[in-house]
Amino acid sequence: xxxxxxKNRKVSSxxxxxxxxxxxxxVGLLGFERVIAKNAGYxxxxxxxxxxxxxxxxxxxxxxxxxxxxxDLISIHKHLFGKWVGGGLSLYFIVYFVFLTITILRxxxxxxxxxxxxxxxxxxxxxxxxxxxxxxVAGGFRIVAGIAFIGLLIGMPxxxxxxxxxxxxxxxxLSPVLDHSVKDLLLSAKAVTLNFLGxxxxxxxxxxxxxxxxxxxxxxxxxxxxxxVYLFSAFVSFAYYTQExxxxxxxxxxxxxxxxxxxxxERFEYVGVSxxxxxxxxxxxxGVWAASRGVKRLFAVNQRKSLLFLLxxxxxxxxxxxTRQGIDQLNTIVxxxxxxxxxxxxxxxxxxxMIVDKVRKRSK
Amino acid sequence: MMGKMLLxxxxxxxxxxxxxxxxxxxxxxxxxxxxxxxxxxxKIKGSTVVSVSQSGEKSSMGKEVYTAVTxxxxxxxxxxxxxxxxxxxxxxxxxxxxxxxxxxKGIYDYVDTYRRDPAVGRDLYLxxxxxxxxxxxxxxxxMLKTPxxxxxxxxxxxxxxxxxxxxxxxxxxxxxGKNMDPVLPLLEVEQNHIKIKGIALFKDDTYIGKYIKYExxxxxxxxxxxxxxxxxxxxxxxxxxxxxxxxSSRVKYEIKDGNGSPEIxxxxxxKGGVLEARNIELKSQSAVTAIEKKSEKTxxxxxxxxxxxxxxxxxxxxxxxxxxxxQTRNFDSKHWEDVYRTVPIKVDVDVELVQQGITD
Lengths: 364, 360
Hints:
The complex is a heterodimer. Chain A is mainly alpha-helical. In chain A, about 50% of the residues are buried. Helices cover about 75% and strands about 0% of the residues of chain A. Chain B is about 30% helix and about 35% strand. The longest helix of chain B has 28 residues, at about 285-310. The model of chain B has no long low-confidence stretch (mean pLDDT about 85). Chains A and B meet through helix 5 and helix 11 of A and helix 1, helix 7 and helix 10 of B.
């Protein structure tokens, strides 16, 4: 049967909070506002609450399955659908994790290209990224979790920068509250999904959590924290921009850093984008780790070998997306696929798992 | 171990291959103020003050002016490069000026390029120049006795009293927002000094040629936002004036029936001190009350006239439409545009003189 990781390779249960939260806060935070305001306008903050709540429910479902199974998604698939169909579904998840990683990496390199160095040699940059990610992931899951924690620690102070746009804030932009139809709110809630994606990785790293029943609580807290961060950012951006201007701002939060006025830095966004690297690296590490772990479990190959192979594919695919439109499309597609995976497939799997579980118990 | 070291070394070597452009302070010209004017036949004339860092121990910055005439804004920059000894960078740009003639044609295209440019900040000032932007640029380049960019400093400190916030951000905010129009400071050159003439009024991105006088900028600010500074001189009767020092001014908008026939009442409350009272007695409470009443009247009359002027020109620098929207469900902005010119707007001013200085 499957061999579970040893105690000395596990992380404490409260790391679930950082792992879930870190994966959700990434490059999306720099410019999610205009995407979510497309349908529900400035009522979109309600949509953030809706999505956040749904994610809480999906996490609850995932933990119900995982607690029963005791291992990860791949063993759940095998248990429910047998070797071939289950393996196929697991393969789908591996491809999905790879695409998630590509999206994160490519979107961030675009930010570097546009905001810092227009003439930068993207392939070289990506290869350096790849080396960094390889050295982290090769160190094992504990290193990846540690990086997630450091990323959170370094990234959090950036929230204080909201002080500057708040000086220009016009909170009357938000009123009248709930001036949009329920349909608009739900459409926006769907658009928020991309920003919350990443928590489903817990289906892969569950066996690495020490005392998983305690970890569930921390995972929920992590998601609530994410909701709070997005809600706060959305409030500030909505108060700072008019709706019409927001619709044209690709990186609303990043653009707001332009007005940060510190005595020792004239233009803060250069510092901000660089600090943001620490938000990106953990996400890429986690994504690649989950995918390579999946490959290892499915095909029984050495994780380092699969890691190298996957990184190669990811870097190569990142180079394929050259234009803003292409990157935008990538984001949209991954958001769609993620929505179906997280909010349709996982709940369906949950229901099926519960039924199968009941039937099998009875037949015993 | 060896392999890892090699990896680290390799990444250093590779980083240099990333093709990154560097800007070293001594090797660039920092543009401080840029001005645009119309030129003959569809062309625009751009001029800019740059600070040139000088080598040696004394760290004074010299200033130089460059100009160019072309069709597009960014091409101005390229043309300027043709006569500049080093490359020009815009990271420290602090003000962009538009000549009156150009402003009357609409300035959005000239603003948009700065919004698009990640290298330029968002807290820089925009202003209209009565006459030619080039004149201010020339004066700016000669003011070397004190450090800093004069244009920026003048607008900056007046923003606390007689000018509304007019950075690139607020221009874009008011321009892009529905049912509101931006304003910009109007500058002029007087005896080799840069001076604020007033507040230039815009319809969308087009200067309509009218402005609020500098003195009345205070009144406009009273209507627009809560603030805490400034002095206003009110006429009490013939030959007697009173200077009110603003301690705090608060404004409230009351809106009725936003989608039908709207009614707006603006309530402003000014708490002030008396700085100067010519030919006026301030000994008794009743005398103070009488002066409060009188100055309220004067202010209301002026504000009424100002609001009426906005309506007559169909401009909305007070963002009245947006204030109505924020208090109306399912706001119909088309309907608002139709009725805006005829909406009854009542201005109510409440002056309270709480300090009279250290004498009575």
